[in-house]
Design a protein that fits this description.
heterotrimer, A mainly alpha (about 350), B alpha/beta (about 400), C mainly alpha (about 290), A: about 350 residues, mainly alpha, ABC transporter involved in vitamin B12 uptake, BtuC, two-stranded antiparallel sheet, two-stranded antiparallel ribbon, 15 helices, B: about 400 residues, alpha/beta, Rossmann fold, eight-stranded mixed β-sheet, four-stranded parallel β-sheet, about 40% helix
Chain lengths: ~350, ~400, ~290
């Protein structure tokens, strides 16, 4: 039972992993990520890659919505921008994949800055609605800017190549996507040790006070959009490489709602929340499938029931978590941890 | 309270064990497996459920006939809700469990996305999509269609118009979706080649929109014929009713997915005179008895079977033919080998469901007949010969 | 410039706009009384249409029985949502409540798909069928009668709002909750009333929309355009909702015909962006709304 950990310097206080125990757990996590591909089948690896991409995207959205308080329903459209950038570069330029990903992030950041301009004028729900409008406008561009996006016919993307190995299978793709995910998540966690991160939190909690304290609202709000778009761009680019083909209908408003639900379920305003939420929301359909299979002796058309049930469960998760556990899975996790820290005392 | 928690924990563990213990039965290694991502729910379910039944019934019948060179065929499919990522997930699940030789897909987006995987796993694929995009032997070598693609369907309609009514005015009414837009530009070119005038190009936004303004556009254009594409049912009956109300005498036509009897029945009176292109015979046609497949379908079913059910039988029959041909050459059932057999076929075996001999043109079979709805008789009646675009 | 055609297109647009206006009024009602932005309004509309379908086609009740029953059903749904989900969220961050309505919408869509599948259906007809001509301009009967019915309902609603005790209580709660409590108005009951009434109106819109273009789970997309209407009109202004509904209906129709159907939604959302950037409180909304 850990009673307390005394810090002797500001740097120590700020550290991401304060105690040796935390370092050990982190090392174990990394080790299990490394070992995972050797004990799982192709389908689990496919899920793992999908989860990683979603974690990156959810972390980005969390920075914007959870930490800076700017609700965005345009996240999927930003991923689309990243995906189309990668797709265009892949088909028209001979640049290596990591440059493509960085370019995707760059283009998406620029688009995000423009789409974030309404945040300088409106906030809260109005901003959310403005982001819905932005996502529809982007969708229109995807469909009609045929010379770049090939419109509704969609674009195919060749799998990336590292040192001669083609990453066209989840078991090889895993080795690229997971390190990127770990790095992006650590970067996000670190962001909130810096001035910028604290400014974001201040804006979320009370933006008028933040501006009184000298935080330039326009600059930091746009920065938040930019950073979130960066993450969305990387996630979108990875998605394009992973799926191998994208079309305008790949990034609907429903996907933005999915990510927003993921951070609500996971816990807005915590890095862990983004991770847990993405994992939970990506794996829930799988669990549902098992459930429907189990219940299949009792229902006469189990196949016909899965899709609507998924929609209902999705909505019920959002409503349920908001009603009963607004701080999400991260809070549940913290409660469990507290229980074990303080055991045998009661929490 | 504690007791309750313990009980629920035990229940959870038991449930997990039960799920994990669902045995993956050791299947026959020799079976020929046909996988399917089926839209059993979602907006395409009306067809998806029929595809599923049709393929299942066909496989049963095939096995009764002795299978393919003595090997049994096995059909494994799961629901996708017509969502491409679900379709991909189902594909990966099934192909990781089984040795799949053929696959049936549900949407154009899925066909595009899975193409690379298909190449890697050397699996041959067909499916519900007739998108012209897929009719490209270089980009989609392991995919084939068991009918004409949408551009070809529109071309067949236009040919018929040009024969019956040279120089007529034609309007295209389509939905602003990938499905809807697919054949339109090719359709316009074909119309011009055939000397037909494209009177209007009317786009409707997806979703239950009010089509009043589009109907007004139609009236202004006053075409002789209007071709619908990208819809299944709505808003076709709406358009037709309004046109009649406005006193228009336009003849309306549709493409494959609007042509099932049940859809015509849903349209009610508005459907009378509605025409469309169909590559397959209807369940109730008199000369269906000439077709081996139709006879088998009749034996198994007393009531009307939709065109999607029949379509699945055709797809199955073609898969069987390709497999037989490949095995006859002594090759394994791998996609690339089957492609070679496919190209070597003189005539595609559709079991007589397509009334004339057909060959592949690219990835599709560019053949169809024009049918017209006779609401009184409650049937679709053929009004043209089989038109082969080749 | 073919003026006759332009007039026909405009009339069609205003007809469609009347449905937007009706649904927008339901939305504004909820916002004014309970300060909730209800993104599930499209789904509530859809449920109303499906209730009518179930009663009219499934149970084959005649329309003058099925429609009131469907409306009551819609009202009950509204009250259920308010009591069950919105009331517990009172006092929470408005963004959370917003997200809850999105979740509710999802549940409603899934339930409808489960019971009736996603296949589009036609509603039993209940409106006269002959073409209507104003002068030489043609209007589709569905559009015309839809407009008339919507106009009657809106007029009825405005009268109720103005003169009925419940309407006065609604307005009182909307303008100052504390004072309303102090005056002895049962504010929780007003909340339920607001949501119930809005549910009924939305159900009515759904039936009209379904009569025009059939029912399917995709009807819920209507809600997004209604969102634009209320923002443009002003979140808490009934008159704004009316005007903006007609305006946007007209605009979509004209754009759809003269520029092409693909541009309909784009123009609507560009208008939304412009309004948000230039005048976020809409045409007639109260200025303080920006401080959300």
């Amino acid at each position: 039972m850990r009673i307390g950990s005394a810090k002797e310097s500001y740097i120590a206080d700020e550290a991401l992993f304060a105690t040796r125990t935390q370092w050990v757990w982190f090392a174990l996590l990394l080790a299990s990520l490394v070992l995972f591909p050797f004990v799982s089948n192709l389908y689990w690896l496919y899920l793992a890659c999908l989860v990683s991409i979603n974690v990156i995207s959810a972390t980005g959205l969390n920075i914007l919505t959870g930490f800076t308080g700017q609700v965005s329903l345009g996240h999927a459209a930003f991923m689309g921008v990243g995906a189309y950038t990668v797709a265009w570069l892949d088909n028209n330029a001979q640049t290596p994949f990591y440059l493509n990903l960085l370019a995707a992030a760059g283009v998406t950041t620029a688009v995000g800055l423009v789409a974030g301009l309404p945040s300088l004028r409106v906030k809260g729900l109005y901003l959310a609605i403005a982001t819905i409008a932005a996502s529809f406008i982007l969708q229109f561009v995807f469909i009609n800017w045929e010379s770049v996006t090939r419109g509704t016919r969609g674009i195919n993307i060749e799998p990336p190549e590292i040192m001669g190995i083609v990453l066209d299978n989840p078991d090889t793709f895993y080795w690229m996507v997971v390190p990127i995910m770990v790095v992006m998540v650590l970067l996000a966690a670190n962001l909130f040790r810096t001035r910028v991160g604290r400014a974001f939190i201040a804006i979320r909690d009370r933006d008028i006070s933040a501006s009184v304290l000298g935080i330039s609202l326009p600059a930091y709000k746009l920065m938040s959009f930019a950073i979130a778009s960066f993450y969305a761009g990387i996630a979108g680019g990875l998605y394009a490489y992973f799926m191998g083909s994208i079309n305008p209908e790949s990034f609907p408003l429903l996907m933005s709602i999915f990510f927003l639900a993921a951070i609500i379920v996971g816990g807005m305003g915590t890095i862990l929340g983004g991770i847990l939420g993405a994992i939970f929301m990506t794996l829930t359909p799988e669990v549902l499938r098992y459930g429907v299979d189990l219940a299949s002796p009792f229902i006469d058309e189990p196949g016909a029931v899965l899709s609507p049930v998924r929609t209902i469960v999705f909505g019920a998760l959002i409503v349920g978590f908001l009603l009963f556990e607004p701080h999400g899975l991260a809070e549940i996790w913290r409660r469990i941890r507290r229980f074990f820290h303080l055991w045998p005392f009661r929490t | 309270m504690k007791g309750k928690q313990i009980l629920s924990a035990i229940a959870a563990v038991l449930a997990l064990l039960l799920a994990a213990a669902m045995p993956a039965l050791a299947e026959e290694k020799n079976d020929i497996v046909i996988g399917g991502s089926m839209p059993l729910t979602g907006p395409f379910a009306f067809a998806g459920i029929q595809f599923n039944r049709g393929l299942r019934d066909y496989m049963e019948w095939l096995n009764e006939q002795g299978g393919i060179e003595g090997r049994k065929v096995r059909y494994v499919a799961e629901d996708t809700g017509y969502e491409p990522d679900q379709s991909v997930a189902v594909f990966r699940r099934i192909t990781s469990r089984e040795n799949v030789s053929f696959y049936f897909g549900d949407s154009t987006a899925f066909h595009q996305t899975i193409n690379r995987e298909l190449d890697r796993r050397d699996i041959m694929m067909t499916g519900a999509s007739f998108a012209s995009e897929l009719n490209d032997t270089e980009r989609y070598p392991l995919q084939f269609m068991h009918g004409p693609d949408y551009s070809e369907q529109v071309a067949i309609l236009l040919r018929h118009i040009a024969e019956e009514d040279p120089g007529a005015r034609v309007a295209f009414i389509y939905s602003d979706t990938e499905f809807g837009r697919d054949p339109i530009s090719a359709g316009r070119e074909t119309a011009e080649e055939l000397g037909l005038e494209v009177a209007a190009r009317i786009v409707t936004p997806p979703g239950a929109a009010d089509i009043s303004s589009a109907a007004l556009e139609l009236r202004r254009a006053r075409p002789d014929y209007a071709i619908f594409h990208g819809y299944i049912l709505a808003p076709i009956p709406d358009f037709i009713r309004r046109a009649r109300q406005m006193g228009m005498e336009t003849r309306f036509m549709g493409t494959y997915y609007s042509m099932d009897q049940s859809i015509i029945d849903e349209m009610g009176e508005a459907a009378d005179g509605f025409m469309g292109v169909m590559p397959y015979r209807y369940f109730y046609e008199e000369d269906a008895g000439e077709s081996e497949l139709m006879r088998a379908i009749h034996e198994r079913n007393d009531e009307y079977q939709t065109i999607y059910y029949i379509q699945a039988w055709v797809a199955g029959s073609m898969m069987a033919q390709i497999a037989r041909e490949t095995l006859a050459r002594g090759e394994p059932l791998k996609g690339s080998r089957m492609r070679a057999s496919m190209e070597g076929l003189d005539e595609v075996d559709t079991g007589g469901v397509i009334g004339v001999p057909v060959r592949f043109r690219g990835n599709s079979l560019p053949v169809g007949r024009i049918y017209r709805a006779d609401v009184e008789a409650g049937r679709m009646v053929p009004v043209s010969d089989w038109i082969d675009l080749d | 410039m073919d003026w006759l055609f332009f007039i026909e297109v405009s009339l069609a647009g205003i007809g469609a706009g009347s449905l937007y206006a009706l649904t927008a009024i339901a939305f504004v009602l909820i916002y004014k009384a309970t300060r909730v932005i209800n993104l599930a309004i499209g789904e509530m509309l859809m449920v109303g249409a499906y209730l009518f379908f179930a009663l009219g086609a499934g149970w084959s009740l005649s329309w003058w029985l099925a429609i009131p029953m469907a409306l009551v059903g819609g009202g009950l749904l509204g009250m259920l949502l308010e009591r069950g989900v919105i009331r517990p969220m009172l006092g929470e961050n408005p963004i959370s409540v917003f997200m809850v309505t999105i979740g509710l919408g999802s549940i409603l869509v899934g339930t409808v798909e489960l019971i009736w599948t996603s296949a589009p259906r036609s509603l039993p007809g209940f409106m006269p069928d002959e073409a209507i001509f104003i002068g030489e301009a043609f209007i589709a009967p569905n559009t015309f009668w839809g407009f008339v019915i919507a106009a009657v309902v809106i007029a009825l609603f405005l009268l109720l709002f103005r003169f009925w005790r419940g309407g006065v209580a609604l307005r009182a709660t909307a303008s100052d909750q504390g004072a309303a409590w102090a005056m002895g108005i049962n504010v929780p009951a007003v909340y339920s009333l607001a949501w119930g009434l809005a549910g009924m109106i939305a159900a009515g819109s759904g039936i009209l929309l379904g009569a025009m273009s059939g029912v399917s789970p995709e009807m819920a997309m209507f809600g997004l355009t209604v969102l634009v209407v209320v923002i443009v009109g002003g979140l808490d202004s009934v008159f704004g909702a009316l005007l903006a509904g007609l305006l946007i209906g007209w605009m979509e129709s004209v754009v759809g015909v003269y520029l092409g159907g693909e541009y309909e939604h784009l123009v609507t959302f560009i208008l939304l962006m412009l309004v948000l950037l230039v005048r976020p409180w809409g045409l007639f909304g109260s200025h303080e709304i920006e401080r959300l």
